[in-house]
Amino acid sequence: MDSRALLLLGLLRTHSQHGYQLNDYVERNLGRVTDMKKPTAYAILDRLAREGYVSVEVERMGNRPQRKVYAITPSGEALFLTLLRENLATSAPLYDSGDIGTMFAETLPASEVRELLRTRHAQLRDRLAEFERAPAHAFGLGVNLAIEHSIRLMRAEDAWLTEVVERLARET
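Below the sequence we write its predicted structure tokens.
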């Protein structure tokens, strides 16, 4: 299942767009629910074009450089619906890159681990507060559900970090 292709195909369903428009929209409006970078988006768009899921037209406006305009094809629409159904029905594994460091925490003194986790916890609480302050997204139920899911995951991380920091304080 390719959630990044799903995202790009879903955005192209509204109207054809050039790559900059897509990337700008993702960055400005969906940054809370995806961290897709521009090079990744362009690589996926190129792959989707090679596979016939999007069409590409080159346009030139005035003295501006040429740019590619992407549009979803009928087979891209079918792929979008397939990917959407798979995504909604599949429980994806949750990996947190912070868990890598957690696995080696005993390498450092417990007091240092506790302080580092306190720093992490403060950063998490700042990010969580930012998400909780955000108004409901104007783009509908789906984006709001994704943001709500992120908030719930952060609250679970918040509770876990509170518990771990308290446990380390008692043990040291």
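The radius of gyration is 21 Å.
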